[in-house]
Amino acid sequence: MCDIVRGKKRKRNNWLQRHARDPYVRRAKAQGYRTRATFKIMELDRSDRLFRPGLVVVELGSAPGGWSQYVYSKISPGGTLVAVDLKEMPPIPGVTFVCGDMSRFDIKRKIIDCLPEGSADLVISDAAPNITGIGAVDQSKTLALLEDSLDLACTVLKPGGRFLVKLREGGDMQGFRRRCALYFKQCAARKPGASRARSPEVYLLGTGFLSGKRSL
Fold first, then answer.
1. What distance in Å separates the CA atoms of residue 1 and residue 148, rounded to the nearest whole number?
2. 80-90 residue pLDDT tens
3. Which of 8, 166, 185, 213 is catalytic?
4. Is residue 141 annotated as a catalytic residue, yes or no?
5. CATH of the domain at 51
């Protein structure tokens, strides 16, 4: 076995050991959530009161459904949740799932057709690209995904709506924040305690969407 393969196997084994010890992983299993990421959206909801019954929400990067489980419970009764991902997601009662690339015209059309009056109160995104390990490539893929998320939000949000998106510190993330500030009255960073300490991820929350829907 070559050193590169050994190194990859060692990293994988270390990650599995840390994952098994993770208290949020244990809590997710005990409480019936599909992923530890559920606790991130719980914390963000507690700090910013994101959800209430009757809201219309679009969730990007929804698979495997940990956020969807929590969000739908908070916007019921009367709310609508449209979950979107490139990967298939096991069904969740009450949640509408759209499988496909959110940057494509036909997928955007499907999302809009699932929304009451074609509009949403809130767009949330925990989406992340497949990481290659090549810095410049991963940065480019991350920024492209963020821009697609922002474009979708600006297409479906009602005036005054909100946008929550995961990003990674570094690179041109400050540039992305400045672009978000063009469309929202306020933008603020959030770092939930459930995010792993070594992770560079933060969440950007835009509030007070400044214009009406973009046409497709």
1. 41
2. 999 999 999 99
3. 166
4. no
5. 3.40.50.150
